[in-house]
Write the C-alpha cells for this entry.
Amino acid sequence: MPNTSEVAVRADIVVIGAGITGAACARELAGAGCSVTVLDRGAAASETTAHGEGNILASDKAPGAELDLARASLRLWPRAVAELHEELGPGFPDLEWNPKGGLVVATTQAGAAGLLRFAREQRDAGLAAHPLDAPDVRAAEPALTTDIAAAVHYPQDAQVQPVAAAEALLASARARGARVSQQTTVLGPLRNRSGALLGVRTTAGPWHAPVVVNAAGPWAGRVARMLGAPVPVTPRRGMVLVTARVPPLTIRHKVYDADYVGTFAEADAPQTLTDSGALTSSVVESTAAGPLLIGSSRQHTGFDDRLRVDVLARIAAKAVRLFPGLADVPVMRAYGGFRPFTPDHLPIIGPDERVPGLWHATGHEGAGIGLSIATARLLRQTILNEAPIVDPGPFRPSRPGLGGGDAARVGPTAGTG
C-alpha cells in the first residue's frame, strides 16, 4: 500500500492562502472550469482577513490604477453578494453587506483645501464625491463634531463582515469543485528542468499544478522568496478599538478624518506619528452587531503582534475629537492585524516572469477586503487570456515601482519588518 504522504495531489491551479483574496481567486477560477486547490498553513480567513474592518472603499484612493481596481470592485461586490446568497441559501451566515457610504471630514482649513482638491480629482476620474455644507453634514451625522471645515460624501463606499464573506467565497468555490486544505504549510517548489513550477511541496505532501497563485497576504514575501521570485511585500501592522454596543444609527456612515488618506498612502507623515513611530488617523464606523470599530494605525513592526498602548490612546483621542460623545462609550477590546505592504502602495497581481507558473495576488495592504473581488476577476482573466476588467500593467510584479530587478534584493528582508 503506498505511503499517502508521498502521493501527489494534482490540480490545475494551487492557490496559497485562504484569506479573502485567495478565496475570491479560488471561486473565480473554479467557476471558469479550472481544478483548484487552496492551501493554508492555518485556518481559513483566520489572519489578516479576520483582523480587518470589512471596508470596501474608493474614497481613499487617488486617481490611477488602484482607484480603477476599486471602482471595478464596487461594481462587482453587490453582484457577488447576491450570487452568494442565492448559491448558499438562507442558512449561511449573513455577510452583513451594507452600502452605507463614507463621509470624509477635515477639521482645519489646510486639511479642507487638500480634501476638496482630492475629491475634485476623484470626480474628474469618474468617482461620486459630493462636498457637503454644514447643514447637510449635521443631517448626515448628527453626533459629529461641529468643528468641521469641509466634508465630502462618498455614496459608493460599503462594508461587509470580512470572515463571513471569505467563508462564503470559499464555500462557493467548493461548490464549484475547488478543494481547501487547511493546516497545510508550503515548504518549497516543485520544478521541471527548465525551472518552471510544477507545484509545491507541503507538510501534506506534494501538490502538482502548472499554476501556483501566491495569495499569502503579509506572508507573500516569504512565500515568493521560497519559490524563487522574491517580491517586496512586508507586514504593516494596524490596530483597531472595539466599543461596547451603541444605539442604532448613532454613526451612520464610515466616517474618517482627512488624515486617513495621507496616513494610508504615505510612508512618512510626521504630523500623525506616535512615540512608537505609528501613523494614526481617525476612522469610526458602526457594525451590524452594535459595537463601533475605531481605527486606525499603520506601523512597520515586522511580525511583532504586541498591542501598543500609546497607539491605541492616540486612536481613541482622535475619534473623540470627531465624535465627542464617544468619550462616554466603553472600549471592550482592541485587536491588531498585519497588512501586506508594498513600496509603491499598489497590489501585485499577475504572472512572475522569473519563475514560469508563478502568479501573485497580494500587496493590498488595508484594502484587501474591498479589492479582493476585482483582483480575483483580473487574475482569472490574465491566466485564461481573457479581456481584463482593468489594465493589468500597473499591477505586474516586474513594474518599476517595485524596483524591477531590485525586487530580488529587497525580497529577502520581507517578513522581518
Summary: The chain has a mean pLDDT of 90. The chain has ten helices and 20 strands.
